[in-house]
């Protein structure tokens, strides 16, 4: 495009120079006046000076006008030539600028092409590097995923192994605990069995002893009752007004009531001890109980009045088991027995 513009400018410049040359040549008079043939004829002419002067003046004016016209024409030609020269120089400057611009443009084009090629190379290189990076990233992700899967698998395996170990440890602990508990239960059962055997033997001995005591008490009670009856019959037959006999009768009655209360207290103690769960630690200790009974011997209340606490708790439990105690027929003895104080001491 720029090469065509340069060629056109050169052609225009050449045409302008040709036009200028033609103009210059057309203003120059190359014709030569041919001399008229002269002969020997002589003509006499009358010359009018005024006319001659007028013609001379006209000739001068014409010459001056022609000279001025030529000067104006030359000036116009000079101006045209200067303008054309200016245009030529401007055109040359423009052509030089165009050529410089063309060179620069070609240089820019070459640089741009080189830059484009470099950019393409860089792009291809970057694309290749990106492809390699993507491939490396993909491989790294695959390796990371595989490593994570392996880690999770190992972690799960470790957790399962730890759970299995903990279960085994727990099973072993439970087995050992069960073994210790079984051994402790066996020992406790054996001790309980021995205690029960000892308690049973002791209870049987106490029961036998209590039965003997009960029979003896019943016998003595019967004897005492019979004696009381005989005494009351004898006293009723005797003179009721004798003071000394009355005092003696009162003293005998008091002793009888005291003996009966003591006898029934022993019976109650035996009954409690028969229902007492004896522990080896109870031997040599005692418990003092206070009982309140109804008129027919039903237990109303039992309280601890002193002694070993554990023995007292066991004794109160035995009292509750008995729940009802035998009562004599004598109202005075019954009244004494309704609030009685007993001492329980396992033997």
From TrEMBL:
NCBIfam families: tolA_full. It comes from Photobacterium profundum (strain SS9). GO terms for molecular function: toxin transmembrane transporter activity. This is Hypothetical tolA protein. The gene is T2129. It holds the Pfam family TolA. The lineage of its organism: Bacteria, Pseudomonadati, Pseudomonadota, Gammaproteobacteria, Vibrionales. GO terms for cellular component: membrane. Residues 85-138, 147-195 have a biased composition (Basic and acidic residues). Residues 81-195 are annotated as: Disordered. It comes from the Bacteria. Keywords: Membrane, Transmembrane, Transmembrane helix. Signal peptide: none annotated. GO terms for biological process: bacteriocin transport.
């Amino acid at each position: 495009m720029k090469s065509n513009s340069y060629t056109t400018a050169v052609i225009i410049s050449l045409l302008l120079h040709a036009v200028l040359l033609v103009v210059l040549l057309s203003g120059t008079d190359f014709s030569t006046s041919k001399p008229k043939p002269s002969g020997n004829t002589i003509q006499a002419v009358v010359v009018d000076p005024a006319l001659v002067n007028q013609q001379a003046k006209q000739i001068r004016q014409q010459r001056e006008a022609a000279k001025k016209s030529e000067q104006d024409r030359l000036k116009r030609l000079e101006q045209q030539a200067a303008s054309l020269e200016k245009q030529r120089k401007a055109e040359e400057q423009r052509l030089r600028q165009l050529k410089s611009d063309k060179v620069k443009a070609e240089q820019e084009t070459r640089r741009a092409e080189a830059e484009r090629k470099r950019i393409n190379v860089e792009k291809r290189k970057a694309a290749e590097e990106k492809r390699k990076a993507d491939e490396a990233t993909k491989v790294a992700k695959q390796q990371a995923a595989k490593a994570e899967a392996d880690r999770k698998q190992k972690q799960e395996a470790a957790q399962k192994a730890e759970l299995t170990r903990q279960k085994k440890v727990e099973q072993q602990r439970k087995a050992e605990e069960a073994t210790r508990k079984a051994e402790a239960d066996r020992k406790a059962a054996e001790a309980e069995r021995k205690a029960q055997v000892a308690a049973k033997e002791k209870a049987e001995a106490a029961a036998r002893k209590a039965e003997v005591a009960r029979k003896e008490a019943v016998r003595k009670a019967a004897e005492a009752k019979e004696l009381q009856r005989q005494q009351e019959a004898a006293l009723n037959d005797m003179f009721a007004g004798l003071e000394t006999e009355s005092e003696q009768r009162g003293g005998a009655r008091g002793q009888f009531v005291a003996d009966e209360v003591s006898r029934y207290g022993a019976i109650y103690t035996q009954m409690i001890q028969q229902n007492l769960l004896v522990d080896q630690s109870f031997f040599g200790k005692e418990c003092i109980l206070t009982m309140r009974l109804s008129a027919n011997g039903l237990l109303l209340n039992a309280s601890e009045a002193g002694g070993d606490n554990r023995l007292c708790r066991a004794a109160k439990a035995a009292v509750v088991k008995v729940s009802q105690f035998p009562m004599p027929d004598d109202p005075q003895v019954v009244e004494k027995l309704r609030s009685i104080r007993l001492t329980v001491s396992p033997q």
